Amino acid sequence: MNKIIDCFKQAAPVSWKSTKWLLKLMIPISLAITLMQHFGVLAWIATWINPLFVHFGLPGESAVAFISGATAGTYAGIAAMMSIPLTMKQASILALMIALCHALPMECAVNQKTGSSFWKMGAIRLIMAIVCALILNVLLPNMPGKYIYLGAEADSGFTEVMTTWAVSQIKMSLMVALIIFTLMVVQRMLEAYRLLDPLSRLLSPLMRLFGLPRHASYMWLVGNVLGISYGSAVMLELEEKGVITREEANDVNYHLIMNHSLLEDTIVFAATGISAVLIVATRISFALILVWGRRMATAFRKL
Question: Is the model's pTM score more than 0.70?
Answer without folding.
Answer: yes
